[in-house]
Hints:
alpha+beta
Amino acid sequence: MAELTALESLVEMGFPQGRAEKALALTGNQGIEAAMDWLMEHEDDPDVDEPLETPLGHILGREPTPSEQSGPEGPGLGTGEGKRALSEEERREQTKRMTELVAQKQREREEREEREALERERQRRRQGQELTAARQRLQEDELRRAAEERRREKAEELAARQRVREKIERDKAERAKKYGGTVASQPAPAAAEPGPVPSSPSQEPPSKREYDQCRIQVRLPDGTSLTQTFRAREQLAAVRLYVELHRGEEPGGDQYPVQLLSGFPRRAFSEADMERPLQELGLVPSAVLIVAKKCPS
Length: 297
C-alpha cells in the first residue's frame, strides 16, 4: 500500500469506521478535509452512526474518476502500479498532519460555539433588561393609580364632611328660627315694660334683666341628666322640645308626654307656662328641672 486511503486516514485519527464511510459517501469522496468537516458538524446528530439506507450513486463502490485515479501525487499514482509502501515514519507524519487538522477543526468549532454562546447570553441579558423595565413601568403605573385613588377618596370624604357640617348649620338655623326667632318678633313681655307699680311681685328684679342666657339642667326619670344653655327670652317650650329630642327610647318604643317640674319650690309647669319666656318663669341664670310622665287629663 503506497499511501493511506481517506477512509484509513480517518480511522487512524480515531473516527469510527462507520462514520468515516458515511462522511466520505455523503461528501462525494471529495477528500479527507470535506469528510472531517461533515464529521465535526454532525458529531452530535442522533443518527450519525446509522448506516446509509441506500448507496448514493454507488459512491463507495463506483469506479474512480480520472481525477481520483491521479490522486494528490499526480496521474498514474492512484492505481496499484505506481504505489510504494509508506515507511513507519511517513505513516506517523501523515497521521500527525491529520491529527493537527482535526485539532484545528475542533478549535474552530469551539470558537464558533463560544461566539454563539456569547451572543445568546447578550440576547438573554437584553431581554431580561427589557422585562425588568416593563415591570418597573407597570409598578409605577400601579402606584400612580393608587395615589390618584387615595386623593379622590380623600376629596370625597372632605366633601361629605362639608355636606354634614352644612346640614348641621341649616338644622341649627331652622331650630333657632322656629323656637327663638318667633319669640324675638313677639312684643316684649310685661316684665320688660315699665310698670306703674315698681313693687309688683310679677315684675323681675332689675338684676335678672342683665342675663341674656340661662343654663338649664334636666333630670330624666332613668337618673340621667341633660344640660343645655338657652337664651333668657326663649320659651319654656324650647326646653321641652330639647328634652323630647334628646331623651332615650322607651323599652316599648313609645314616647310618653313630658311634664316639667321645678324642685325648689316644687312647681309643675302648665301648658300656659310653655309659652312664657324662661326669664319670666324665674329660671335665669340657671335652674334644675325634673322630667315626669304627664298624666292624661
